[in-house]
Amino acid sequence: MIAEFGAFCLMLSLTLSLAWTGFAVAGRLRSGALMAGAGQGAAIACFGALALAFLALIFAFWTSDFSLTVVASNSHVDKPALYKVAGAWGNHEGSLLLWCLVMAGFGALLAGARGLGFRLKTSAVAVQGALTSLFVGFAVFTSSPFARLDDPPVVGLGLNPLLQDPALALHPPLLYGGYVGLSVCFSLAVAALIEGRSGSAMWPAWGRWVRPWALASWALLTVGIALGSFWAYYELGWGGWWFWDPVENASFMPWLAAAALLHSAVVTERRGALAGWTTFLALLAFTFSMLGAFLVRSGVLTSVHAFAVDPERGLALLGILGLAAGAAFALFAWRAPKLTPGGAFAPISREAALVLNNLFLTVAAATVLLGTLYPLILEAATGETISVGPPYFALTFVPLMTAMALILPAGPLLAWKRGDLKGVGQRLTLAAALSLAAGLLALALWSPARAATAMGAAVAAWLVLGSISEVADRVRLFRAPAAETARRARALPSSAWGTTLAHLGLGLFILGAAVETGLKTERQAVLPIGGEVAAGPYVARVEQVGVVEGPNFLAERATFTVRTADGRAARTITAERRFFPAGGQTTTEVGLDFRGLDDVYLTVGERAATADGRRAWSVRMAHNPMARLIFLGPAIMALGGLLSLMDRRLRRAPTRRLG
Fold it and tell me: I need a surface site. Which of 193, 227, 230, 510 has the fewest CB within 10 A?
């Protein structure tokens, strides 16, 4: 009965989303507040109906209602409660319902926003309603999670064991919050193009309205991608944290576009410039989100991250992508030439630095797009199968991002409209000298063979020290009395602190990625009880191996003692090889020993035998230096985004109402 109620709520949400769109359009065309108010009410009601449908689906998973196809295929009676709930979005149908729920929720927030102006608001609400109608319609007609089974199983097939992990329970909601949050930027951009303002008076206020949505989406994407990377690092057992998998790229491309949008929106808000470029990026960011949905759900990719669905659904998603993005970019092509460029600025200015930053980010996103789609296009056209992996991205993406990182610290120190490059250079002299020294020291310690790693360390130091220098300059550190410095620090807006944290977090991430990639050591051995293997400055000894029983698996658990080469700082960690009877799958549970910023990484594999016939196991050990920074850096970046979101200037209505 609960499932039928959920199906009814899903159907009702489609009707409400269409009403939401229709009322908003009628309100805009006739300037009728009553119609616009009805559209707002329908948006809120649509969100409520989808929330009830989603709760009904969670209840079905919680109670193991195997009469539903999606529950029978993705749950099991013995599965832990957390993963029963997470199973609701660990599949195509449930995750699509979550997508629709988040989209309607953002639409309801947009409909209730104040100070946006009647015409622009109703246009944006109508576009958001149309997007919601497309995706809810797709869920209703091709991907309903409430489809019944005629002959339900007794225990269920179970969720993929690789997905039964706390990080993966949180990863999709956070990622979808970022993915779908960009739909509001898309709607605001389309609404601005519909209004067709040729003057620049509206754009500063419009930029201020776009920024919070872009900030929230970018921060959620940052956390979601970092969680997915951390999951791949410790759950898949291959020892890496990023493989340039097409599905990984599907979430990374919107992140890059959202980062460019954030920087461009600042220029539009402060100077009324780059209006066309900012609207283009707003359209592009959500287009990348929709492209990611297509890649993950169409069946064109084979990945542990992807939902294996039939091509007919993929064609329907491609149709949604073509309709929404095609109409939006056609409107942009028509309206953009009429948009005035806004405030002029010199080649040396903060605006110019942000434009250059945008160019590097968008070209980097284009290289990721090319590396992701080219193998698919080539296979479809010729039948030839190729793989585009890390070497391609190392040659294309890394240089672009390195160039962007080099100019990043200078941007906040430049003045608007016309900057003083010499003055900025003087203020960054110490940071540049220390960064160069750090690179030379790293080169001396790690040998010329590690030149790329040393360069990465120097770039990271430049970002971190440059971010600190920018704040020190603004508060006049060491150049004013302590009381004056403290007063200036308190007066800095939270967005300034947020920018500093985001840039600093990026520097820490680059440092961790460069050092872990360049200095990682890995060893593999067949070890009996009492056997030892060494990697870097650490030694691991196999103490015992035994069989343990979990809630829905059997595991062979190895206990290791990890110590330094000289015998100090011994710790005990475990690694497992799990077997899940429900699906007949075997997974690896990594043993991680956190040593400051470093990781000692251990996995245990299949049984083997030593040369003298003793029972042994395949053991892989890695020393990953500074691996903590790979995940700490994005956390600090996301914190910076959230801190910027708290800026009172973004919460205050613009002085000029839009529309």
Answer: 230
SS3 of residue 545 by DSSP: strand
C-alpha torsion 114→116→118→124, nearest 10: -110
Residue 77: closest CA among 86, 92, 66? 66
| CA geometry: angle 169, 170, 172, nearest 5 deg | 90
d(C-alpha 510, C-alpha 508), whole Å: 5
Please, what sign has the CA dihedral across residues 166, 167, 168, 171? Answer: positive
Please give the Cα distance from 221 to 287 (Å, whole number).
Answer: 15
8 A C-beta contact, residue 535 and residue 600:
yes
For the record, the structure tokens of 508 come out as 């820490």
pTM: predicted TM-score of the whole model, two decimal places: 0.94
CA terminus-to-terminus distance, the chain: 47
Cα dist from 223 to 171, 230, 303, whole Å: 8, 10, 21
The Cα–Cα gap between 60 and 3 comes to 7
- Tokens representing 142 are 């091709």
Give me the residues of the chain with pLDDT under 70, please: 31, 196-200, 299-310, 340-342, 650-659
Check: CB of residue 492 under 8 Å from CB of residue 474: yes
Distance between CA atoms of residues 598 and 620, nearest Å: 17
Tokens 């990611």, residue? 292
Q: How far apart are CA 610 and CA 591, in angstroms?
A: 23
Element of type H or E holding 95: helix 92-111
Q: Where are the alpha helices (DSSP H) in 428-474?
A: 429-446, 451-474
DSSP states along 106-153:
HHHHHHT-SSS-HHHHHHHHHHHHHHHHHHHHHHHHH--TTPBPSS--
Distance, CA of 149 to CA of 70 (rounded, Å): 9
What is residue 201's three-state secondary structure? Answer: coil
Which residue, 505, 523, 507, is CA-closest to 515?
507
Please give the Cα distance from 146 to 155 (Å, whole number): 18
pLDDT in tens, 103-161: 999 999 999 887 777 888 899 999 999 999 999 999 999 999 999 998 888 888 877 78
Q: Can you read off the two tokens belonging to residue 489?
A: 């620090």
